[in-house]
Every structure is written in C-alpha cells, then in structure tokens.
Amino acid sequence: MERGEDLVGEVEGEYTVEEGRVKIPLDFKRDESKIIALSTDADRFGAAPAAVHAVASEADAGVVYDEDRVIARSTAAGLFSTTLDSGMEYDSSFPAVPAQIDLTGATWNLAAEDWKAANPWATTFGASATQTTKDQVSVTLSGLKPWRQIPELVNASGIGLYTTTFSLPESWSADNGAIIDLGTVVDTFTLSVNGIAVPVDQTTSRVDLRDQLKAGENTLSVRIATTLVNRLATYDTAVNNRGHYQNYGLLGPVVVSPYASVEIDYVAPRITSVELDTRQRIVIQATDDLSGVARIEYSTQKGKQAASPWVEYTGPLQVDAATTVSIRVVDSAGNVSEITQVNRKDLR
User: What are the tens digits of pLDDT across the range 275-307?
Assistant: First the structure.
C-alpha cells in the first residue's frame, strides 16, 4: 500500500485488511488531495510492501516502512504503542528530541526579481509587449512579512528566494527527522534543504525531512513565484481600482518539528546453540537482532510425567539422559521464539 503524497513510491501509514477490503485512515487538510495506489504486484510502484504493517500507532509522527522494517516516529518523548496486523501490540520508548523550532521571526535573506514591462504598457503591442525586465532586489528580513509590507517590494511581482539557517544538536542522528510546516505561501513554491530539493505539497506546505537534515547548521531555502496582479495594478487603472492586491511571499508560520524514529521489533529471537559442556551440562545460547534477549526459559519432562513450569535459564543445566528439555527465548519486545526440544543423549 502506498500513499502517493510525495509521488516518490514510498510505503507508509497504518491500514487494515478485512474481508478482502483495505481500510486506510486519512486526514485531509483544506483543498488537499491524496493518491492511494493498491496493487498485488510488489514491484508495480517501485516500493515493495513490508512483511507486516501497522494498523494503529500512538506515535504522533506516523509509521513508515523500509523493506521489512517497521519504523514508528514521535515528536515527543515517552512510551507509545504500535499495533501490527498480527494483532501484537508493541511498546516503544522514544527519547527526547530537540524542541520545536519556529523560524517565523528568524532572520531571512530575500533575493527577489521584480518583473516589469520593458516597454510602455499602454502603447506597446505585439511581441514587444511581452518583453520583461527583472530588477534584482535584496533585503534582509527580521521576521516574515508580505511583500506589500516591504518598501522595496510594495508593488512588485515576480520571483523570490528566501533563505535562513537553523541549528540542530550534535546528538542529531539517522534516527532523527523533522516535519516542516511552511504555513501560508503565496503563490507557488519550491523547497530545498541543505541544497537538496524536497518535493512539497502545494496545498498543505508541509513535508517530512527524513534524510536532508544534519547536526549543526542547516540551510533552508524557499523559492516562490507570484502572480502578476500587484505589478499590473500599477499599469492598469481598472485593475488598480478593484483594489485586489495580493499578499505575496512566504508568510508562515514556518515551524520545524523534530522527531525520533524507533524500529518496531516484531521478529522473534533465535536459539543459536545448545551444547554440552565438559561436565555434561546443557549450555544454551540465543540472540536477537534488535531489542535484545530478555531471557531464556526452559521446561523439563521425563517419561510420561507432566512437563514442569517454564523457568528462567540462568546457567548450565544438569539433567539426566532420560529428561527432555524444552527451550524458548523471549526478547525485550515480548516476541517468543519457537520451542526447541533436546535430550542430553542427542547432544553427545
């Protein structure tokens, strides 16, 4: 299942499959649309589905998938649960993340092009009427504001490139990311972070920065393109008389919300070896790739006797050759391995 919000073939989100139907919770902002792509062909959209998927999560930044990895993300520290399609619920401990960064009042450099008619508006016709000059205007803003409130751009229409920087702590790692919300932007726009172009929804102006951020200083650039209404009003009396000037620009609020990522450990641990030591005692070893082994448990049974309760393995077991030992492993996420049964005589 893919949500094509970024149109880059990513698999993300929570969904359920019931009686042959796929149910996907969706949250729409005003004027927003989403593309949902469903296929039985794993290679159809360039992103294979994970072996398992989430049906619900308390983590507020959502769930994403990387091949068979299920990754929950949260902007807050704490213990949050994620439920997979297997019905298993996993609690994940999220570390503290940097505080939300509001860049609305930051220092921004704005490099604008003020597009003007190259020839007299009222008396020029034909191809000459389309000729345009592009005056370069550079201003430093102490906080975002509409072009109509910037003296150098009161009547301007054209292109504007906004640039600012912000810092992230040295502890920032690949397990971190951030949601950036650009707020109100008039009119169309593109976004780049540290020189990397980032696809962004033109209606919500909100985007996930998973791989573009780094520890230390980060550079944010927003390039906007306005309509020509405000400049046209200086040439055309009828347009000016309507008084419909537009508040061009990156208006914000621009907010960066960092999050932490935690991989959901849904894979059971493994028993790696069961051997006899020099004193003929059973020695058990196990491993887990993600959350770690919490404990090894065993139960014994001799002949037709009932099996003993499961107890924790704390060291080599001394049992006779007629006793069968059942072994299982539990990891820190609560996954339980398959049961392995051994007999001392089989280990000789």
Answer: 999 999 999 999 999 999 999 999 999 988 899
Question: Across the beta sheet with 340-343, what order do the strands follow?
Answer: 311-312, 293-302, 323-331, 340-343
Nearest 10 degrees: CA dihedral of 124, 126, 129, 131? -130
Residue spans of the domains in the chain: they are: 2-94, 101-261, 270-347
Which residues, at least 6 apart from 219, have a Cβ–Cβ distance to it below 8 Å? 163, 164, 165, 193, 194, 195
Domain 101-261 sits in CATH at 2.60.120.260
Closest CA to 182 of 211, 221, 149: 221
Tell me yes or no: is domain 270-347 CATH 2.60.40: yes
User: Which residue type does 305 have?
Assistant: Q
CB-based burial of residue 76 (10 Å sphere; 0-12 exposed, 13-18 middle, 19+ buried)? middle
What are the structure tokens assigned to 334, written together?
């609560």
State pTM to two decimals: 0.78
